[in-house]
Amino acid sequence: MITRAEVCAVACADTWQDAGAALASPFGTIPSIGARLARLTTAPDLLLTDGEAMLLAETTALGEESSSPVEGWMPYGRVLDMLTGGRRRVMMGASQVDRYGNQNISRIGPWDRPKVQLIGVRGAPGNSVNHTTNYWVAKHSERVFVESVDLVSGIGHDRARQVGAKFHDVRVVVTDLAVLDFTGPDGSMRLRSVHPGVDVADVRSRTGFELAVDDVAETRLPTDEELALIRETIDPRNLRDQEVPA
Questions:
Q1: Are 175 and 140 in contact (CB under 8 A)?
Q2: C-alpha torsion 27→154→15→26, nearest 10
Q3: At residue 97, what are phi and psi to the nearest 5 degrees?
Q4: In order of start, what are the domains of the chain with their CATH numbers?
Q5: CB neighbours of 204 closer than 8 A, spacing ≥ 6?
Q6: What is the pLDDT of residue 32?
Q7: Residue 108: how many CB atoms within 10 A of its CB?
Q8: Res. 12: pLDDT tops 80
Q9: Stretch 215-219: mean pLDDT, rounded?
Q10: Which residues contact 233 (CB under 8 A, 6 or more apart)?
């Protein structure tokens, strides 16, 4: 049986399909599986690191110490070079995201009395104005998909137009329910596909704003080759089901 986590993983992998020799920066278990899967299938030139400063020649299993030969050095300064040069492709998380793709990972609540302090804006502003940025949300809910984010960390399509951010390229959001893009009116969020077993109404009810909805497809299933790679090579410890339970 194909699990929801595996459907999500291939949806994440598809976001790197045309990346070429870009540095992949996945955040989260499912995006990390997706980046590895893309490198082994549709994006063989994708660059992966050991999570610190070394570029790896081989695609290693998730959660295991790498024995791969090192093919390059990727210190923080070089990561910034890749970022500003548009040669990086990131899949970040989002504590909040609105209809135009403005993302918040910094705080929940008002400036003077925040309810929750999160990790700060980190690299989200630079990511979202310099290279392709996608988002992963492990639990689709109205708490994440909000009418207005409490603080803008990653820049959405409306603000990108306002400031003339010509390299802004926020493309999709993959969640445990669906794949969404920004091809709705004025760059607003559109429901592109729902995962098998999910209804359009389910996604709408768990989204805090009106989604653009036209011809909604079903998210594609993994191929036999992709399933074998996920289960035997990339994630033999089945860490994926901890992030998206079967």
A1: yes
A2: -10
A3: -150, 140
A4: 4-235 (3.40.1080.10)
A5: 191, 211, 213
A6: 97
A7: 17
A8: yes
A9: 96
A10: 40, 59, 61
**Whether the Cβ atoms of residue 190 and residue 184 lie closer than 8 Å to each other:** yes
Structure tokens at 51: 């999570």
Residues 98 and 152: their CA atoms lie apart, in Å, by 10
Q: What is the pTM of this model?
A: 0.94
pLDDT tens per residue across span 180-209: 999 999 999 999 999 999 999 999 999 999
> What are 157-172's pLDDT values in tens digits?
999 999 999 999 999 9
Euclidean distance between CA atoms 196 and 18, whole angstroms: 25
Helix/strand/coil (H, E, C) string of the chain? CCCHHHHHHHHHHHCCCCCCCCEEEECCHHHHHHHHHHHHCCCCCCECECCCCEEECCCCCCCCCCCCCEEEECCHHHHHHHHHCCCEEEEEECCEECCCCCEECCEECCCCCCCEECCCCCCHHHHHHHCEEEEEECCCCCCCECCCCCCCCECCHHHHHHHCCCCCEEEEEEECCEEEECCCHHHCCEEEEECCCCCHHHHHHCCCCCCECCCCEECCCCCHHHHHHHHHHHCCCCCHHHHCCC
What spatial distance separates the first Cα and last Cα of the chain, rounded to whole Å? 10
> Amino acid identity of 1?
M
